[in-house]
Amino acid sequence: MMGDSKTKKVACSHCKNEITVHGISGEAIEITCPKCDTKGIFAFPEEKPVSRSTTGPVAIEVNNLEFTYPKSDKKAVNGVSFGIKKGEIFGLLGPNGAGKTTTQKVIIGLLKQYSGNVELLGKNLKDWKTDIYNRIGVGFELPNHYQKLTALENLELFASFYRRKTIAPMKLLEMVELEKDANQRVATFSKGMKSKLNFARSLINDPEVLFLDEPTTGLDPVSSRLIKNIILQKRKDGKAIFLTTHNMNDADELCDRVGFIVDGKLTLIESPRELKIRHGKKIVKLEYLKDGELEREDFDLKNLADNKNFLSLLRTGNVQTIHTAEATLDDIFIKATGRQLK
Fold first, then answer.
1. pLDDT tens across 186-209, in order?
2. Could you tell me the pTM of the whole model?
3. What is the Cα gyration radius of the chain?
4. CA distances, 28 to each of 46, 118, 248, 305 (Å)
5. Is the pLDDT of residue 299 over 90?
6. Sheet architecture: strand order including 89-93
7. Residues paired with residue 90 on neighbouring β-strands, in sequence order
8. Residue 12: is its pLDDT beyond 70?
């Protein structure tokens, strides 16, 4: 969404004439001095983003978590520590077999023989009984529905398990755009429809903490966008969301902070924005047409407004693309861990 319009008075670099510039945060404006006809570019500074990870009570606190599966001599989770606050989306990123899902299964109580300390909603995990499931929601990567029941019957059945007020099943089906299929047997559903029903089921008890494992797997772009919008709204509602994925695009778009995990070890925790700024190149890449051929040229961001060649190319009208050389989370993951996501 565009920011509020701003006004700034700047002095011409040549004749010092005062020029009034109008724009929004982050916008670069080409200006021409009305007095001496000198041209230049003024960039309105970006507004400082609000950090969502520094406010709100802690929902999950994990310290030195370790877990080894029976008959294995290798730790699936090895000394992992992190915290998640309410109103925050935390993404645990790593390749298959890295320890993402194991970490999640320990925190939701499915795996018991762990070492270390886990606090969930202000209480030690070992002190929780089954009542914890009234306060958390879980969306597994692989949907597990009752195939002979309809979508509506599935949600009604699971709603009956909770000892607290639940969200009306039809409201949830409408939320994920399955209301027209409410009375259809789940066995006839496509993979994407089952995934959306699985996601809807994770919300049925209006959980305070939401655990999602690859929530957009098997979804088309429209459905994926729908699910991601709901996740972002849940964050606005103050929910703590623990996302495990190897989809870096989802993590970049959704997460306030991400952690990189490989071979059971958490190697780095930071916000996607800070990671991309720190690891990106301070250049602008330009593609333009010259004599019918596509040319490419890189320009240093420093003193870009005074770069005559850059300004000349902008004025020709033949520029095809222009963008910064921002590092991707995939690039950063490989650099930080020496591994690729697969």
1. 999 999 999 999 999 999 999 999
2. 0.75
3. 25
4. 11, 48, 29, 9
5. no
6. 136-139, 209-213, 240-245, 89-93, 257-262, 265-270
7. 242, 257
8. no
- Mind spelling out the 3-state secondary structure of the chain? CCCCCEEEEEECCCCCCEEEEEECCCCEEEEECCCCCCEEEEECCCCCCCCCCCCCCEEEEEEEEEECCCCCCCCCEEEEEEEEECCCEEEEECCCCCCHHHHHHHHCCCCCCEEEEEEECCEEHHHCCHHHHHCEEEECCCCCCCCCCEHHHHHHHHHCCCCCCCCCHHHHHHHCCCHHHCCCEHHHCCHHHHHHHHHHHHCCCCCCEEEEECCCCCCCHHHHHHHHHHHHHHHHCCCEEEEEECCHHHHHHHCCEEEEEECCEEEEEECHHHHHHHHCEEEEEEEEEECCEEEEEEEECCCHHHCHHHHHHHHHCCEEEEEEECCCHHHHHHHHHCCCCC
Q: What is the distance between the alpha carbons of residues 340 and 342, in angstroms, rounded to a whole number?
A: 6
CA nearest neighbour of 65 among 15, 120, 20, 23: 120
- CA dist., res. 152 & res. 169, Å (int): 6
Taking the C-alpha atoms of residue 41 and residue 33, their distance in angstroms, rounded to an integer, is: 11
- The per-residue pLDDT of the chain, averaged, comes to 86
Question: Are 246 and 95 a contacting pair, CB within 8 Å?
Answer: yes
Both tokens of residue 17?
């004439």
pLDDT tens for 174-187 read 999 999 999 999 99
- Looking at the DSSP bridge assignments, the partners of residue 28 are 43
145, 155 Cβ separation under 8 angstroms: no
Whether 56 and 87 have beta carbons less than 8 Å apart is answered as: yes
